């Protein structure tokens, strides 16, 4: 080989090595607390005066499943915001559900809705919204209830041709069997608040969702139940678990009907520093996590900035029903602001202190975008407005 050719090959090899190392170094986040930017890529107007929220999205059909949170009306809406169907599922008829808030697409053409009752049963419907069956519930004893029109507590996924449910069930135990007042932090090891529901076999499999390396579980320090928020990505069979308090998120891999723990990810945000969680900590004065959503290869975690403790205690000193005080509601608006932490895979890549539009994160979509339900304007709209936003990555 000629010397000139040899030198050229060395130069090319060096250039390739430099290029690869440069890509690797730039792929890592410069700082886990860097302020991220999202941009609006689309919007959708649904011509309804009543308020609705999105329950689920069918990627192949470009179809949204929507519901009026206060009523039992369900809508099928296409990607343009056009209402294709309306169904009155709320009620006491044989094809209805008396009370429900949550729902998902089920398989290629069906639907599943979670009943709001002491049983929390699931109702399966066909493509024409005819009820096929009502299952048993995942609840054992009702002791905790949380309703959020922007959150779903379960997901649907396919496993070898069968469709199953996976989700969170904080009422999966009986206090006669597991009493947190007696066992304290042992609760984090014994209670199983995650579940897989094999509908075809009518079998429910429960699993523990407190991450193994979550500080309060590892150190056996009791700070209350702190039921984790769960988010499941059917494409990768990845489940993430986010306890309300603390600074960690757990990642699990679904294998069969079990969630296998993979690792714990540390979380950080300037507005959560110097807050210590204890058994006596009230959620209003602590920046606790309220939700986690997957969107493509990302996860977005939501928490609210706390009300100052002296302000909160001032309201409590006035009345036991301080929460009915208009000034208290004004203080909640003043102090409690949504903040976000964003993960890519198993790394925190940054934070978000304000959405690009005023509103709430309603749904995470598989294409890596978020659906934002627009906040009410100063002038009442005769329609519902949604924005689709995506992360701007350099």
TrEMBL record:
Protein name: DUF4221 domain-containing protein
Organism: Algoriphagus halophytocola
Source organism phylogeny: Bacteria, Pseudomonadati, Bacteroidota, Cytophagia, Cytophagales
